[in-house]
Specification:
The structure is a single chain. The chain is α/β, with parallel strands linked by helices and about 300 residues long. About 40% of the residues lie in helices and about 15% in strands. It has helices spanning about 30-40, 60-70, 100-125, 130-140, 145-155, 160-170, 185-195, 210-225, 240-255; strands at about 15-20, 45-50, 70-80, 85-90, 200, 230-235, 260-265. Strands 1-2-3-4-5-6-7 form a seven-stranded mixed β-sheet. Strand 6 (about 230-235), helix 9 (about 240-255) and strand 7 form a beta-alpha-beta unit. The longest helix is centred in the middle third of the chain and has 27 residues, at about 100-125. The two termini are about 25 Å apart.
Length: about 300
């Protein structure tokens, strides 16, 4: 696989690096332009826009990045399945116009639309009339997701905040938790590679796995060609970071030298009022090899 979409310079990683964030093209609340501007204000020099299952915001973000002096990696966060569990795979430094990415997006658009229709139908049965149209208004031109239903529930006065919306109606096991047969992890990694990008397992600690299961996920992710893991995602307890690194080392011990998964990081920014997900709030621990070394030589490894 060739990682050659964008070559980085030493100056690119002298400031903060943030390789996971969302705009209004998916479920963030800032436009791509506003997001880039906020990243610049936070000292971010290398940014990846990784909207869920879409690259619709990249062109606008690129214009803003050139104006702000921020290096922008084209990215995406693809929804996938590992067995029966939903996982998210970030594609970094992809060709956003590649046929592989277009096909991956088209398939997920179809699945997301079907899911949105089912969520709306279930909510209508619970007495929430107009759920689909309300969520669509919040999604705008972006893909409809559960956060858009949550925002509509709050706006319509049904609930006081989005957290309550997820707790009562949209979270795991609730009426809005609609099962979707997302593409499997191997196919998702292959799509990212076909687009020239690096495949990164997003926020491994958010899947609620035991250590043994998490190690299995990391091992299988590497087996199917995964390139890196988000060892830090948002503000994270250092103990958790050490646990992820220990699991990565354990997985890597079974492979040839140099076969260990690389390290990535990101805020998973969605909106400004979540300080634990603030743009540029994350740093890699010392001694790990960062994913951006795929595109840049001489990078410091203690970001």
């Amino acid at each position: 696989m060739a990682h050659s979409r964008l070559q980085l310079t030493d100056e690119t990683v002298t400031g903060q690096v943030d390789l996971h964030c969302h705009s209004t093209a998916s479920d963030g609340i800032l436009s791509p332009e506003a997001l880039v501007s906020r990243a610049k204000s936070a000292g971010v020099t290398l940014l990846a826009l990784t909207d869920h299952d879409t690259v619709a915001g990249f062109a606008e973000a690129q214009v803003a990045a050139e104006k702000e002096g921020v290096t922008l990696l084209p990215g995406i966060e693809l929804t996938a399945c590992w067995g029966r569990r939903v996982v998210h795979i970030v594609g970094l430094n992809i060709d956003p116009a590649s046929a592989a990415i277009e096909d991956a997006i088209e398939e997920r658009d179809r699945l997301r639309h079907a899911r949105a229709m089912e969520i709306a139908a279930r909510m209508e049965k619970r007495g929430f009339a107009g759920a689909l149209e309300g969520a669509r208004q919040h999604a705008g031109d972006g893909v409809i997701g559960r956060p858009h239903f949550a925002r509509w529930l709050v706006e319509a006065g049904h609930l006081p905040d989005e957290a309550k919306a997820f707790k009562r109606y949209l979270g795991a096991g609730k009426i809005g938790d609609v099962t979707v047969a997302w593409p499997d992890m191997a196919d998702t990694v292959a799509s990212i590679h076909a687009a020239g990008g690096a495949a990164v397992l997003a926020h491994p600690l958010k899947y609620g796995l035991t250590r043994i299961r998490l190690q299995s996920l990391l091992s299988e992710f590497q087996d199917v060609g995964g390139d890196a893991v988000e060892v830090v995602c948002g503000q994270q307890n250092p103990v958790q970071t050490r646990e992820i690194l220990a699991l990565l080392e354990r997985v890597g011990e079974a492979r040839d030298p140099g076969g260990q998964l690389l390290a990535s990081l990101g805020s998973d920014f969605h909106q400004p009022d979540q300080p634990w997900r603030a743009l540029g709030c994350v740093r890699l621990p010392a001694g790990v090899e960062p994913v951006w070394n795929l595109w840049q030589t001489g990078a410091t490894q203690d970001q």
